[in-house]
Amino acid sequence: MRLITLALAALLLLIQYPLWLGKGGWLRVKDFEGQVDIAHKKNAELIARNAKLDSEVRDLKDGTGAVEERARYELSMIKQNEIFIQIVGKGQAAAPPPLAPKPPEN
Which residues lie on this side of the membrane: Cytoplasmic (predicted)? Predict the structure, then answer.
């Protein structure tokens, strides 16, 4: 009787192995679900980025407003007969002037 019980317990363990650790086991499925969730999040970020870039390209192709804005902020360009005024806020300090190099000591 004891031998039959041990044999049945061994068979039960053998049946459980593929369920937990096999090719389609629960642990592997959980791992794949985590990978799929990460891929979905990354795809959503990339879709949002592509939509932003697409709208930016359309703006650059269709109108001059986007080109003018880029020229102003990235290249610090101003229009003709325009005066550039920069206001330094309380939290911002003006950049100190560069220091003159020290003469070498003898």
Answer: 1-3
